[in-house]
């Protein structure tokens, strides 16, 4: 095993730990790890990310389910519409994207690079959301607004399908604002939604013949270990403090990817 691979598997543990602690953020790390450490093409990296984040989040959601911290009614309202949008996006929209995606005279923007630029945009938005998020344990929003949750689920499904991100940075605030969940239940519920969303998205790519299953399963195993550790540590670390710190890291990684990709154009 090379030093780069070892670093990648250590990063997989960290990505799983982040999901367990914050209810999201794992895909923000897994896609760059696959692209820059394991040299996977960006579109295929989003496929790998869906599997890793889905399987890892499923392990974490089982632990939270035993603690009775998951709101299954809210999960159904958010996740069912999202199932359809993520599968359709992954199965039909992403393959239908032209390559290059944009071309003007001698300048062209390949599909893989387009995915990365969109991913960087999402990373920056996620980082700012985590850094600015207020510390609110309870919400006075009243009864869950299930229709708005369903519409939000449709949008998150498209995002998940396009860039392989679970969308936890969007899901957790919406569960607090629209469902009135306290933060710890929003994190737990978000992990279950991410698990199902990501797995459904991966099913849309299951027809691919270029999946490196040994790499994928090994990476996922390390990530699963990380989420078990993250769920345990969540008892001791304030979620808001962690989110702000992680937001700073995500912003730094986004700037690095942006500079690197602009340099290659």
Short précis:
This protein is mostly helical. It is 76% helix and 2% strand. It is a multi-pass membrane protein.
Description:
The chain is mainly alpha-helical. The protein has one domain (about 5-265). About 75% of the residues lie in helices and about 0% in strands. The protein is built from 10 helices and 2 strands; from the N terminus they run ααααββαααααα. It has helices at about 5-20, 25-35, 40-65, 70-95, 110-130, 145-165, 170-180, 185-205, 215-235, 240-265; strands at about 100-105, 105-110. A two-stranded antiparallel ribbon has the order 1-2. The chain is globular and about 55 Å long. The two termini are about 30 Å apart. The mean pLDDT is about 80. InterPro entries: TM_pro_TauE-like, TSUP/Inactive_protease-like. It is found in: Cell membrane; Membrane. Belongs to the 4-toluene sulfonate uptake permease (TSUP) (TC 2.A.102) family. Keywords: Cell membrane, Membrane, Transmembrane, Transmembrane helix. This is Probable membrane transporter protein.
